Amino acid sequence: MAGRSSEPPYPGRHRQQLVARFLALRLIHAIAIVFLVATLTFFLIRMAPGDPIITRSEALSVPPEVRAQLLENFGLDRPLVEQYLRYLGNLATGDLGYSFSENRPVTTAIMERIPNTLILAGLGMLLAFGIGVPVGAIQGWRSGSKTDNALTVTSLVLYSLPVFWLGIMLQLAFGLGLGLFPVSGAIDPVIHDGLSTFGRLWDRIRHLVLPAATLGAVGAGALARFQRSATLETVVQDFIRTARGKGLTEQLILFRHALRAALLPSITLFGLTFPALLSGAVLVETVFSWPGIGRLIYDSIAARDYFVVTGTAIVSAIMVVLGNLVADVLYWVADPRTRPAS
Amino acid sequence: MTRDLITRTLHSRRAKVAFFVVSTLALGALLAPVITPHDPIAQLDLVGLKLAAPSWQHWFGTDDLSRDLLSRIVYGARISLAVAALSVALSITCGTLVGLAAGLAGGAVDALLMRLVDALLAVPRLILLVVILAFWPQISLPLLVLVLGVTSWFDTSRLVRAEVLLVRERPFYAAAVSAGTSTGRLVRNHVLPNVAGPIIVAATLGIGQIILVEAGLSFLGIGIARPTPSWGRMIADSQEIMVSAWWTAAFPGLAIVVTVVAFSVLGDALRDALDPKAS
Amino acid sequence: MTTLLDVRDLTVHFDTAGGRALAVDGVSFRIDPGETVGLVGESGCGKTVTALSILRLLDGEAVTSGASVIEFEGINLRNLEGEDLRAVRGAKIAMIFQEPSASLNPVLTVGLQITETLHAHRDIDRHAARTRAIDLLDLVGIPEPDERFRAYPHQLSGGMQQRVMIAIALSCEPKLLIADEPTTALDVTIQAQILSLLHDLKTELGMAMMLITHDLGVVAGMADRVAVMYGGQIVEEAPTRQLFASPQHPYTRALLDAIPRLDRVTDRLPAIPGSVPPATAWPSGCRFHPRCSKRLERCATDAPDAFTAGPDRYARCWLAAPDQAAAP
Question: Hey, which residues 168-227 in chain A have their CB within 8 Å of chain B?
Answer without folding.
Answer: 168-169, 172, 176
